[in-house]
């Protein structure tokens, strides 16, 4: 990766997989503990309960949420006097609302899944989350498992406020059997993608299933198109530096192309009410040929349901465009933070060490998740999809954060809501002008603005 904008330039930001021919290893100072053979290190007379909150998909299997439940059960065998109050009853945008509401009420769980970059910054600057800097410095064997660029996404003012968990890519999945049946190849150009859409549509197969009930999913296509048209500069200036305008031509053209795809029949008519489980099932059953998604949301589910029948490609080149199919959307996305008001910091740290041990992280990676944690694995240990995604991420010509993360909660949500309208009949120029007005208004209200 060569470029994330000024906020994120150095090194490979995670995708922490090293394939080796020997057995998996873990640092001597960070040897994982599991099962009943390990000895408890908690005072036998002290019983505590930690509140743990993380998202869980409703109405479908959620391998990553199950991994967290497995962590809890395995840890309780090691530390029987540490119990957990687990909250996992919401996901997606609803989870963001829950976290934000609890932050505002200063009712923060002891440990909770959060995000990186500008989504995390307000929590850190409001003194709601625990400063993990000393903890990481005192456990160098753990800190070394994260690249400096991954940690930079959770660090503000030289203080680290969250442990990175996933290093995600936003890509297009495809059903290999469907492509093979109709003699289709992964597209290298936008015209080739249009041909695939036409062939699948003609054969009564949904060309691209896109679960845009959570509007951030539909923004993936907008980001890809805008970059392929205008190159990395449109992202750099408007998203990172905040000096560009949402009314610039690449954004308007991207929105217009999205609406052309809608008219072409690329998506289901109910695209804005589709859920991720619905789209994943359609892809796995061959009722859809392609699916636009995020690796942390869908990889594990698709690996479980499709195995090696699922493949991926990055959005292809647009003729005359300045961007490249070798430019990827990838970001250290999810992380875990600790409440600044926790009454049990030592017990919390023990659980963090446990869930971030190489054994538990490898277990998560085997499910198909892309991790910020750097570990070793034998060939064949991980799903083929994960290995291929890792190689793609590391070979990226340039990379962008997912735009809603550096934009922050307010403008990120406004961007997502705006792009959701592009799948309907909203006027792109008017919608983008309204988005630009909101960006300017927010800029005027920012500290230090005139």
UniProtKB/TrEMBL annotation:
<dbReference type="Pfam" id="PF01547">
    <property type="entry name" value="SBP_bac_1"/>
</dbReference>
<dbReference type="InterPro" id="IPR050490">
    <property type="entry name" value="Bact_solute-bd_prot1"/>
</dbReference>
<dbReference type="InterPro" id="IPR006059">
    <property type="entry name" value="SBP"/>
</dbReference>
<protein>
    <submittedName>
        <fullName>Extracellular solute-binding protein</fullName>
    </submittedName>
</protein>
<feature type="signal peptide">
    <location>
        <begin position="1"/>
        <end position="28"/>
    </location>
</feature>
<keyword id="KW-0732">Signal</keyword>
């Amino acid at each position: 990766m060569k470029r994330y904008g000024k906020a994120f330039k150095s090194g490979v930001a995670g995708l922490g997989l090293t394939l080796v021919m020997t057995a998996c290893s873990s640092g001597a100072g960070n040897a994982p503990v599991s099962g009943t053979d390990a000895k408890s290190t908690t005072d036998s007379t002290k019983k505590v309960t930690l509140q743990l909150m993380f998202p869980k998909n409703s109405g479908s299997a959620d391998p990553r949420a199950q991994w967290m439940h497995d962590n809890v059960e395995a840890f309780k065998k090691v530390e029987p006097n540490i119990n957990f109050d687990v909250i996992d009853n919401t996901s997606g945008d609803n989870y963001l609302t829950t976290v934000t509401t609890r932050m505002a009420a200063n009712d923060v769980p002891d440990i909770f899944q959060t995000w990186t970059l500008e989504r995390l910054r307000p929590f850190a600057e409001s003194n709601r989350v625990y400063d993990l800097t000393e903890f990481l410095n005192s456990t160098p064997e753990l800190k070394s498992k994260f690249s400096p660029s991954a940690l930079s996404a959770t660090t503000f003012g030289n203080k680290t406020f969250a442990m990175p968990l996933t290093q995600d890519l936003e890509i297009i999945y495809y059903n290999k059997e469907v492509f093979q049946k109709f003699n289709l190849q992964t597209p290298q150009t936008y015209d080739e993608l249009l041909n695939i859409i036409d062939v699948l549509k003609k054969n009564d197969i949904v060309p691209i299933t896109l679960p845009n009930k959570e509007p951030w999913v539909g923004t993936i296509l907008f980001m890809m198109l805008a970059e392929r048209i205008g190159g990395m500069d449109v992202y750099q200036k408007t998203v990172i530096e905040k000096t560009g305008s949402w009314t610039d031509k690449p954004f308007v053209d991207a929105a217009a192309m999205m609406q052309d795809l809608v008219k072409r029949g690329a998506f289901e008519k109910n695209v804005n009410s589709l859920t991720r489980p619905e789209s994943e099932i359609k892809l796995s059953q061959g009722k859809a040929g392609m699916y636009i998604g995020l690796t942390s949301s869908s990889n594990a589910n698709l690996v479980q349901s499709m195995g090696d029948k699922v493949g991926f490609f990055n959005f292809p080149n647009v003729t005359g465009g300045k961007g490249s199919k070798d430019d990827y959307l990838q970001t250290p996305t999810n992380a875990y933070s600790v409440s600044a008001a926790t009454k049990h910091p030592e017990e919390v740290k023990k659980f963090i060490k446990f869930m971030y041990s190489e054994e538990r992280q490898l277990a998560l990676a085997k499910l198909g998740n892309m991790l910020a944690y750097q570990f070793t694995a034998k060939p064949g240990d991980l799903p083929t999809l994960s290995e291929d995604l890792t190689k793609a991420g590391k070979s990226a010509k340039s990379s962008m954060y997912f735009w809603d993360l550096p934009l922050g909660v307010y403008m990120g949500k406004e961007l997502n809501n705006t792009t959701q309208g592009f799948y309907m009949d909203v006027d792109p120029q008017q919608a983008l002008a309204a988005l630009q007005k909101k960006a300017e208004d927010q800029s005027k209200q920012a500290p230090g603005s005139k």
